[in-house]
Amino acid sequence: MEETMLSMAFPAPDAFLRDARALLRRDPGLGALIGLDPDALPHDGALIAGVLAQALPGDVAGGFLRLAAPLAAPGGALFDLLREDCRVTAARDQDPGGAVTSLLFANGLQGLLAHRFAHHLLGQGRAAVAHALKIRFLRAFGADIMPEARIGRRVWIDHGLGLVIGQTAVIEEDVSLWHGVTLGTNLVDRGEGRHPKIRRGAVIGAGAKLIGPIEIGEGAVVASGAVVTEDVPARGLFIGARGRLLEGRARPAHELGIRIGELE
Predict the structure, then answer these.
(1) Are 26 and 107 within one domain?
(2) pLDDT tens track for 198-237
(3) Which of 48, 141, 149, 197 fits as disulfide partner to 169, beta carbons 3.0 to 4.6 Å?
(4) What value does the CA radius of gyration of the chain take, rounded to a whole number of Å?
(5) Residue 67 falls within a domain, yes or no?
(6) Contact status, residue 171 vs residue 153, Cβ threshold 8 Å
């Protein structure tokens, strides 16, 4: 039912703007805090880009807006996707203010929106620009999402602080991620596919650490604080973080091909 609702045709291209204007009419002091005048913006995409730009230093914000404006405009490559992200967060978060207050105040959503821009620019062959955006938005939102990571539609990132998503990670549609989640590598498996794959509808709880080329099946749940180094089947529940000592089993860095203390 929720997916049907969220997949409906979008409202007018300035629907978020209208809600933002109404919000500022109710509390005019809010404008100074969000740093935007919705009356000066032409459409929802400009509002989304403007919100992200406000998280950047002044000398960087203008450069981001020049990159983002054509992508976020109606008919642009990201317009519908960005607005869908906002609506999904509002629905999953049960935000009483709707999509516009999620856009303005949800840190995890803002980190996801920033990744959408970086990922798109990477696909256009602008890798350096994509990574420059990544590091700037990491400092702003506290979420480290590599531009190469593939994130599907209707993904919800709650809070976003401490989130780490590695370069070859894949996150399919309708996945939910809480703060402190890591999709990382084990330093042994190399190359493409060395990060986890999260299948459709999976839920990853706060602080969970998913390591290596593993797969979390469709609809599976990984509980908060779990450390996962193996596949989780579809609709499976993975709980717990147990450590055990295996004496003499650690492999030194030179065996793993990791150069420490020398230049290549």
Answers:
(1) yes
(2) 999 999 999 999 999 999 999 999 999 999 999 999 999 9
(3) 149
(4) 20
(5) yes
(6) no
Give burial (CB, 10 Å; 0-12/13-18/19+) of 91: middle
Q: How many residues does the chain have?
A: 264
262 Cα distance to chain centroid: 35
In the prediction, which pLDDT does 248 show? 75
Q: How many Cβ atoms sit within 10 Å of the Cβ of residue 112?
A: 25
The fraction of the chain above a pLDDT of 70, given in percent, is 91
Range(s) of the domain holding residue 120: 10-141
pTM for this predicted structure: 0.90
Longest CA pairwise span in the chain (Å): 67
Tokens at 10, concatenated: 């979008």
The residues pairing with 165 across neighbouring beta strands, listed in sequence order, are 145, 183
Which amino acid makes up residue 86? C
CA neighbor of 34 nearest in space, from 104, 123, 102: 104
* Strand ranges (E), 31-179: 144-145, 150-151, 156-157, 164-165, 170-171, 176-177
Given this model, what pLDDT does residue 9 score?
56
Whether 172 and 211 map to the same domain: the answer is yes
Distance separating alpha carbons of residues 264 and 260, to the nearest angstrom: 10
Which residues does the chain have with pLDDT short of 70?
Answer: 1-11, 251, 253-254, 256-264
